[in-house]
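Risk mitigation, structural track. In case the binding assays with nicotinamide-adenine-dinucleotide fail to produce interpretable data, a predicted complex structure has been prepared as a fallback.
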Amino acid sequence: MTESPTRVAIVTGAGQGIGAAVAQRLAADGFAVGLLDLNEANVEQGAKDIVAAGGKAVGVALDVCDAGQVDAAVTKVAEELGAPTVLINNAGITRDNLLFKMTEQDWDSVLGVHLKGSFLMTRAVQAYQTKEKWGRIVNLSSTSALGNRGQVNYSAAKAGMQGFTKTLAIELGKFGVTANAIAPGFIATDMTAATAERIGMSFEDFKAAAASQIPVQRVGTPEDIANLASFLVSEGAGFISGQVIYVAGGPKD
Ligand code: NAD
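Fallback model:
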């Protein structure tokens, strides 16, 4: 029996939180993984951990908003691991404020990382996917896409990720490429810890308050998201495309 070649996945924002968990999970699933993040030390460590566990990985520092850095990072992954055909657009930031206090910088930086960053990454990776006639794209949206006080920039960006995903599904389907979005609810990471700090609550109290409003009565973990990402990039998910899947411990509209 001939062994199928190792597939290569790129995860952005893989330095910590959800991205780090997705990178570790895809490596455990047998993918070679390019871990991309602003934080070079974190992705180098994450790649080392994967290699120590017997996998293949490389860590590359980049700003996903910079087209030159994006193209160079994707080329580096292709040279070191092979053609990347799986892309997880996960890098993200929040700059929360009520509309009347929000600055242009808050708006531009949030829209920039989520939307421009995902556009640049996807444009670079689709060249490999369409050539290989196979690919999987998973974009991180959020329940905030449905509206969330203090997040007019982030809500707009995360709703934008949904339209972006559906259009990718339409354009790239004929090349064997699927695109789906995961829209998490409250996931315990540095991002939600920073929100707790900003509003002056302990992270434990903040998580408990959130959990009390969630049907399954707990907040999510990065592994909850990695489990779905693992399925969406699998062979068996090839007829699922253009979908937004809420992973929030209960229903969302
Ligand atoms: P996090 O803050 O823990 O990690 C985000 C990572 O993205 C960091 O390592 C950071 O360095 C990297 N990053 C930020 N800007 C970057 C840039 N310009 N270029 C490259 N890397 C960059 O966040 P998280 O909670 O793990 O969130 C991951 C994704 O999931 C984000 O898109 C976020 O919006 C989304 N999300 C998170 C939650 C949650 O509750 N934590 C809920 C819904 C959606």
